[in-house]
Design brief:
578 residues, 35 helices, elongated, mainly alpha
């Protein structure tokens, strides 16, 4: 976008031959050199619109093909050398809108204008050469001369133009970096962005860019982050120590910049993992948090070297909530070997005296379980069934599993591990653990692990009605049902609890007549209950000590049953009723 489009045009001129006199007075560009007025390029004083300056016979129409050395080309050259500064400015402005080959043809004459005595003409010439990009690389030296000009806008436009010139601009990276000492944040942003555009060609200036990561202006910091990233891997690796030092900065936004860069580098920053790990011992929780997140992102190798993981795992006991949960997140990247290595530590923490520590240890355990072997599972469940670990902690392990087992990317082996683990916990003395375990098993895809069906069937005889109901729906998974379980299911048809009786009846029907499932749920359950609605309500009411629940519960039970989903809902809601 050319800058004269940014503002409404001044009133048309009465006398196109003497444009300056007729225009409202413009601020002179030189007055800004002292820095008294803060100028961004949009604020540059503007020339009047082209149409007022040039009658069309003077220049070729925009977009015209100008024959080399032809009549039009001579005219353009003549205009670029006109005595009137406005005409020179307008000629450049006009060229900016012509084809690239036309521009290249006049580039020499335009480059001469970089030394013009009118600053606006210089500015426009620099912008045009910048727009031409690498093609105009031969003029990089002339542009670089403007980097030390007294006028701030000229310094800016020269830096921007050099930033687009690739290898040619890269030779002047150090000079562009010289602008980073400016007091004006917009100047620093322009210089940093120019270096970023040069990419690897500007890598020698990486230390200067890295210094801007902790600039006091957030625009500069963000520009520096993006630019340093663009300078390429070698430049980045050379600046890792600078990024790590930002992690312990007092300003949270500056810490974020360091974290963001290191996280983006990921395994690329492995060589310096040890330096990050030292920050795990910091007294400042925010610094510990940054270190955990960065080490997790560095990932395999450096970040997960056993010793680091041990130190990270120890932070599950951190006094700061954010740090503890960051550790939980970090453990999700562990592989089987790492899970096994830290099993002991996590099991120990499950019996910790502080509830928040037990809580995060349980969360980690629910993830680790999916990456172990069957023998480890047995060892863990043996501990969980003792009174060393509270029922609430076991529930906190099972609760996340309920979501995890439904993840599409779970392997069959992981499903089986989850089933084995959960089934082994079904003899737990806490009713809520048994019920939750059965809810997890309802959600595990077809399980092919010996003994799971028997463990569920054992719950059909549970003293608690909620557990019996949950067991009925868990048993309905095709892989778990066996003949001998059917016998127990039939005995539940005479259960003292109405909900259990209903669940068992529905379940048997679905197991025996899977095809008629749709027919039953659409006709049978509604019609049968609509007749004896009153009676049904009263019988449930009496079961639940006359708590006056009537027909609202009918809807929960007789909802068209879709597989096993309707039943766990009952199990849930009964928690609330009893």
């Amino acid at each position: 976008h050319h800058h004269h489009h940014h503002h409404p045009h001044p009133p048309p001129l009465t006398n196109p031959r003497s444009p300056r006199s007729a225009l409202p007075p413009m601020p002179s560009l030189t007055s800004t050199a002292s820095g008294s007025l803060r100028h961004t390029p949009q604020d540059l004083p503007r020339r009047p619109p082209l149409d007022n300056l040039l009658s069309t016979d003077l220049l070729p129409p925009r977009g015209a093909v100008v024959q080399s050395g032809g009549f039009m080309a001579q005219k353009t050259d003549k205009m670029l050398r006109a005595d009137d500064a406005d005409a020179r400015w307008a000629a450049v402005e006009h060229l900016k809108a012509t084809r690239e080959d036309t521009q290249a043809e006049h580039a020499d004459s335009v480059a001469q204008l970089l030394k013009d005595d009118d600053e606006l003409v210089q500015w426009n010439a620099a912008e045009m050469l910048g727009n031409m990009g690498e093609v105009a690389g031969g003029y990089a030296g002339d542009l670089a001369a403007l980097l030390s000009h007294t006028n701030k806008d000229l310094r800016k436009v020269a830096a921007k133009a050099l930033g687009r010139m690739g290898p040619a601009g890269g030779q002047f990276a150090e000079q562009i970096a010289g602008l980073l000492t400016s007091d004006d944040a917009s100047m620093r942003v322009t210089a940093v962005q120019a270096l970023g555009h040069l990419g690897p060609f500007a890598s020698p200036a990486a230390p200067h860019v890295a210094q801007c990561l902790s600039d006091n202006d957030h625009h500069v910091r963000y520009a520096a982050l993006e630019s340093l990233w663009n300078l390429g891997p070698e430049a980045l690796i050379s600046q890792i120590p600078a990024m790590i030092s930002l992690l312990s900065h007092t300003d949270s936004q500056i810490r974020w910049v360091g974290m963001e860069l290191l996280k983006r580098m990921g395994p690329g920053a492995e060589s310096e993992a040890e330096r990050v790990a030292q920050l795990l011992d910091s007294d400042d929780a925010d610094v510990r948090l940054a270190a955990v997140e960065v080490l997790a992102a560095i990932g395999q190798g450096g970040g997960t070297n056993q010793q680091h993981i041990r130190r990270i795992t120890a932070l599950l006991q951190d006094s700061n909530t954010k740090v503890r949960w960051a550790v939980v997140k970090a453990t999700k990247s562990w592989d089987g070997g790492q899970c096994k290595a830290h099993l002991e530590d996590v099991v120990q923490l499950l019996g910790h005296e502080e509830p928040p520590v037990r809580r995060v240890a349980a969360e980690v355990m629910s993830w680790i379980v999916l990456h172990l072997g069957m023998t480890d599972i047995k060892a863990i469940t043996n501990v969980l069934l003792t009174d060393k670990v509270q029922g609430e902690t076991v529930r906190n392990i099972l609760e996340p599993l309920k979501k995890t087992v439904q993840m599409p990317n779970l392997s069959t082996q992981q499903s089986n591990l989850a089933a084995k683990f959960t089934a082994a916990l079904l003899p737990h003395p806490d009713v809520n653990v048994r019920q939750l375990g059965l809810e997890v098993l309802c959600r595990v895809a077809a399980v092919a692990v010996a003994g799971v069906g028997d463990a569920i069937a054992a719950c059909l005889r549970d003293p608690d009605a909620r557990v019996r109901t949950a067991a009925v729906s868990a048993l309905e998974q095709p892989a778990s049902v066996e003949k001998r379980h059917m016998e127990v299911l039939k005995t539940l048809m005479n259960d003292q609890d109405t909900v259990v009786r209903c669940a068992a009846a529905n379940s048997l029907r679905r197991i025996q007549h899977p095809a008629s499932d749709r027919y039953f749920s659409s006709h049978h359950s509604y019609s049968s209950h609509s007749h004896n609605n009153h009676h049904y309500g009263s019988s449930i009411g009496s079961t639940f000590m006359g708590s006056g629940i009537g027909s609202s519960k009918r809807s929960a039970l007789s909802s068209p049953s879709s597989g096993t989903l309707a039943l766990p809902l009952v199990a849930h809601s009964r928690n609330g009723w009893s």
